[in-house]
Specification:
Elements (H helix, E strand, L loop, with lengths): L7 H4 L1 H13 L3 H6 L7 E2 L10 E2 L13 E5 L6 E7 L2 E8 L14
Antiparallel strand pairs: 1-2, 2-5, 3-4, 4-5
Amino acid sequence: MPADYPLLREVFPDLVTELRDLLELQEETALASATEDLRLVERCTCKDRSCQSIRTVYRPEGGSYGPGHRNVVLRPAKGMLILDVVDGQIMYVEILDRPRMRRRRPWSRK
């Protein structure tokens, strides 16, 4: 992933901490470790006020993740967090019905 995309932990550190902790609780240790290197590639553009979802890598051509895809449903205290994982890589973080996330720093792609 190109370095011109900010690390998710630099923009939304509380989210990354929460993801890591929830993944560890579900014994998804490899994914928990991978949260430190997630990049903020794109925010969801669906315009649904309850959605704050984040793409961590670009979606493949054709829109389907393919045979290595699985969803990891986390159990946060509020709202929903669902990860799209392909062959052990977190591709997308679905963030629904949660309080507005606070940014540590502004996000802008170079």
